[in-house]
Automatic annotation (TrEMBL):
One of its GO terms (molecular function) is RNA binding. Keywords: Ribonucleoprotein, Ribosomal protein. One of its GO terms (biological process) is cytoplasmic translation. The lineage of its organism: Bacteria, Candidatus Gottesmaniibacteriota. Residues 22-98 form the Large ribosomal subunit protein uL2 RNA-binding domain. Residues 104-233 form the Large ribosomal subunit protein uL2 C-terminal domain. Pfam families: Ribosomal_L2_C (PF03947), Ribosomal_L2_N (PF00181). Residues 191-238 are annotated as: Disordered. This is 50S ribosomal protein L2.
Amino acid sequence: MKNLSRKRPEKQLTQILSKHSGRNQTGKVTVRHQGGREKRYYRQIDFRRDKFGVLGKVVAFEYDPNRNVDLALIHYADGEKKYILSPIGLELGQTVISGSEVEAHVGNAMPMSRVPIGMAIHNVELHPGRGGQVVRGAGTMATILAREGGFAHVKLPSGEIRKIRDNGLATIGQLGNQTWKDTQIGSAGRARHMGQRPSVRGTAMHPGSHPHGGGEGRSGEGLKSSKTPWGKVARGMITRKRGKYSDKYIISKRKKKGRIK
């Protein structure tokens, strides 16, 4: 666990994160069990890492209430300040840099064509120039298994092996805060501060509100498989669209138990 700074976040890198409480522009609830969280500021994070050849120095590690990974505040040699995701092994005072000819040190960003085979990476670009889109969660890392025909074969945290263009950027290292998955919320009040509203069991509702509802006393679901409030199978159903264009880039699918096809 890094020593997080207690200073206020950089004003030019933050903006108010407006509350929607799970509702759309008409006020209809589209995501249940959301609402009532405390005010937050959104930290603008540099997922692109496109300041090529400019040295940056790590000056602080900061908490981000919007994600499960801590942030590192970088002061670049040209005076610009940016936040990046903080990997394991990044230290205060350490320098980071982006480019195609940089060394494969923790915190440096480089094309996947230059990353050594088997090295841990994060913040991986699926489309070159668009910024990192995958491997951004606490404790996650990906590894490059091979390179062929302009593509890198990347093993993602889910176990999926996927072909990604090797001219896209990735950052060296495994992301920190890997014990986040063991966190216990501990109290209802803390859950409300986080924006989580109470969840009512379907079996406690009447049959007009939920497929599990109704019955006399504490009756069970009475169904072959659990259902969502809208009558869909709740557990194990594959939600990925069949015949998706990106299927051709998946070498090996992630393996999950108990799936319903």
